[in-house]
Amino acid sequence: MSRFYWLHETKEPTASFDAAHQWSLPGVRCHTCGATWASAGHQYPAVDLSQLSERHEFKKARPEPFPEFARLRELVRPLAPPGAALPPGTQLGPLVGSASGKFGPFTSLGDLLWVLRRDALERLQAEGVRGLLGCRTELRFRQNDPPELFELQIEPHGRLHRDCIPPDVPPTLRNMWLGVFPTAG
Questions:
Q1: Lowest-confidence range among 29-33, 131-135, 155-159?
Q2: What's the rounded Cα separation, in Å, for the pair 53 and 5?
Q3: What is the DSSP letter of 174?
Q4: What's the per-residue H, E or C state across 61-130?
Q5: Domain locations in the chain?
Q6: Model pTM?
């Protein structure tokens, strides 16, 4: 039996945060069509690159030729969840930045980035929601007694159906939308 949970948006924002993940894979510049692209929604806040000697190469967002992207992706692969696609632009590590205001149980920054308070995470677990991996954020507050905020590591497993992509999309972008990422070599 499946259970679904609905999140209701408040009328007035009561909290905000300005944050990004500590590291990311670079975008890719296609050698054929010249397009530069990166994905959205691939966030692995539990992946810790702090022990990699090359960790500084994951700090700055930038496009790279595919071979360089593939080299960096393979450095991350042993630290990522098994089977993770790790497309260009994958976000890694904790959210780092500043925050202020009164956070509700769930608070979003845009559509893809959500944080939740400890009590909300514990309540979901108490209700029997399994497989939740809550990752502590590194958000800085000026206020006294700031909330303890977590980001869920939600692994994306869906893909677009081939019929959803317009026929005039170049093969390189078509493969990206379908989740087909070439391997190095």
A1: 155-159
A2: 41
A3: H
A4: CCEEEHHHHHHHHHHHHHHCCCCCCCCCCCEEEEEEEEEEECCCCEEEECCCEEEEEHHHHHHHHHCCCC
A5: 22-178
A6: 0.77
